[in-house]
Design goal:
This protein has 208 residues and is α+β, with helices and mostly antiparallel strands. It contains 4 helices and 15 strands. The strands form 4 sheets. It has a 7-stranded antiparallel sheet with strand order 1-2-13-10-15-8-5. A 4-stranded antiparallel sheet has the order 9-14-11-12. A two-stranded antiparallel ribbon has the order 3-4. The structure holds 2-oxoglutaric acid and manganese (II) ion.
Length: 208
């Protein structure tokens, strides 16, 4: 069972129960216990600002990505991450070689408007976004069409949001802060990072 979001210039599908409540409890605990959560900072106007969430990056050895001018090497897959990835690959009918994890401690943790358009992801990335724990509001906004309303989806525990096609070209997304009292939430975005000449030092254009 899934819901296709009605939107121009994008392809977003919501699977509210990709994982059962039992599986969700299990993975919540496994990820809380085993992931090396980090508090990263971003440099803004020469000041180090802590990100409003904890993060972690896991994946195949070569799945290197650059973020805020920092080259990030992934940590090796854990059994829980491999099992979650397998479910995502079955549903998405796509392959993923890395996952970015976000830990939102409470309603003050958030992620601002952005698109997942790092060059390493290629032109039309397939992104599988999985959630465990508290339900949080996820919003999509068209970059040019001011006549289109913001789309809001409440992402619940055990859900999968699949973004593909031209979604990352034409739409931005965010997880806003909320004044409501909400518990912690773990989000995982599975991605396929493309090796390129700069990171590999060869002319290989293979996907891995
Ligand atoms: O937490 C979410 O639902 C979104 C996370 C996200 O957009 C990202 O990691 O790029
Ligand atoms: Mn994103």
């Amino acid at each position: 069972m899934h819901q296709q979001i009605v939107m121009p210039d994008g392809d977003v599908a919501y699977f509210p129960a990709c994982f059962s409540p039992q599986e969700s409890d299990h993975y919540w605990q496994a990820l809380t216990d085993s992931i090396a959560w980090r508090q990263e900072s971003i440099k803004l106007f020469n000041k180090e600002i802590p990100q409003p969430r904890l993060t972690a990056w896991y994946g195949d050895e070569g799945a290197i990505y650059t973020y805020s001018n920092i080259t990030n090497h992934p940590l090796p897959w854990t059994p829980a991450l491999l099992a979650i990835r397998q479910r995502c690959e079955e549903v998405a009918q796509a392959s993923f070689n890395s996952v970015l994890l976000n830990y939102y401690r409470n309603g003050q943790d958030s992620m601002g408007w952005h698109q997942d358009n790092e060059p390493e992801l290629g032109d039309h990335p397939v992104i599988a976004s999985v959630n465990f724990g508290a339900t949080r509001r996820f919003q999509l906004r068209h970059k040019k069409r001011k006549d289109l309303a913001t789309i809001t989806i409440e992402l619940g525990s055990g859900s999968l949001l699949l973004m593909q096609g031209t979604t990352q070209t034409y739409w931005k997304h965010q997880v806003p802060k909320t004044a409501q009292s909400v518990g912690a939430r773990i989000n995982l975005t599975f991605r396929l990072i493309r090796q390129n000449e700069t990171t590999e030092g060869t002319e290989s254009t293979e996907f891995f």
